[in-house]
């Protein structure tokens, strides 16, 4: 037993020494991290086990000692440097603008202009231009007209330089307003007549006149109104000249419808009274001319009757044409004008916006209204309302490019870069445009700013998109993609959009009520109380009937015109006239038969014939001088005379109606431009008609 106890004590001492071993470190050696070692777990001493065979106790096995670690230099790992803080992207700022803000900006300029402080006025004027760009307005017409008024005041005060500067700013505020360019041209002309700036301004004003629907449509209506009025006047004047030329022969035959006791002045008065009945009873212009044509048809040549039929027949279509013109050229007081004002973003349109918001809430608007409302709210910074309206517009027209561009911009301003990028990439694939490609490039840039190095490859995509945009629009400037970042991004002007398509706007420019009213008024004035379905054709049908009646003149022995002295040739007044004779009995005896009348009678008749020819030539000359073409009509050339007369009346009517029958919203073209076409037409038609008449007479 004593031997067994000694062995156990020796085993415990050996285990304790093993755990107490430590590593020795050379202080001059470089520090190295200690190598990991396996932990040694001490085994508990085993219990005594009796061998059943020999009855002796067996000692537990002695544990093996772990080999000591290899000595060497210890390496200490240097701490890793901390990564630099992530650079924050420049903030995206979206400003909200109201009409009150716009009024405040305008008030500051008005006060600065009234103070006559040039520097303050210039600063306030620059603020006007910056505000226009901020709200995405294409034309701030109200502000531009205000600046035009101020420019005129400065011009009257003698400061033409300040007037020109303010007028230039007005043109920048409303580049599509013709009035700004016309006033600027006048100021340029007054400041420097030798320069060519006024020609460029005048050219831009004329181009704007034809490009703006609010000016082009009234111009078309004015031109058609002048032509229709000229047609009406020409018809009346030509029939009046016919009556002056052949009315005497109608009165001659009309006298034989009454007893012999009736005097010619009495029967003539009755005839004139009968012909004036359509005027007395206000039956219309066409019935009055038809009554006159009925009285003259048997005394007119075939060519004269055809001219009369054409002129009277066209009168029936004047109401139809007038109604169509009003319907197709209407713009004022229509939904198109309201949307036009909202789209351009001028001040004072919030009541209009509220009106269409209410209609939109009642689902009484279409694509154009929803798009314009969305575009307006987007420009004013109302992003949630813009998204709602633009989504509604795309629900009605899913493939509309301007609506997609606007909605993608709204997503971008709300921070949804993924949807914005997706929409712009879809537009690039389906309908590429310069605006969409530039916007896509800027979205790529923003994504790199926000997401950092993980999106660096999108800078190459941005450069490619800008390159494609410059191919579509070379005026787009070249911009460095990897240039310095701005301090902040003004979202209102960062991305561009497209306005409502012109065809969608003009589709709403309808005023059927006004068109029907004009059609009814013209029909009542020209045709009279005739059913609307028959009214356009009534004058033409009646004129064709009277044209046929003219061929009955020989059958009923209507009076003819003596081709020598102009006296009536009729068996009712001269029974000795042979049927079909073209001369009266006196002329037959003097010029066709020999030795029938005395020489003195023959001379007297020859003088009468010469006097008749001279009177006819004098009358045609006077009519030609007073009214181009009417000399031709009186001389027996109705077609040429009617054409000259129509052109002459057109020139006179255009000069009289120089202000137009449909007023433009602001000042239109200068008076010189309005009168120039009429003056040119008059100077061409009037001398040519007199020259042609003179050649005919000679």
Describe this entry's structure for a reader:
- The chain contains 30 helices and six strands.
- By secondary structure, it is an all-alpha fold.
- It is elongated, with a radius of gyration of 50 Å.
- It has helices at residues 2-19, 99-114, 118-134, 141-156, 160-173, 178-191, 197-211, 213-255, 264-275, 277-280, 285-296, 302-315, 318-329, 335-344, 350-361, 367-380, 383-396, 401-413, 417-430, 434-451, 458-472, 491-494, 502-506, 512-526, 538-549, 585-592, 599-626, 630-634, 638-656, 671-697; strands spanning 49-50, 57-58, 92-93, 489-490, 560-561, 568-569.
- The protein folds into four domains: 2-58; 99-211, Alpha Horseshoe (Serine Threonine Protein Phosphatase 5, Tetratricopeptide repeat), CATH 1.25.40; 218-324 and 521-549 and 592-697, no CATH class; 335-506, Serine Threonine Protein Phosphatase 5, Tetratricopeptide repeat (Alpha Horseshoe), CATH 1.25.40.10.
- The longest helix has 43 residues, at 213-255.
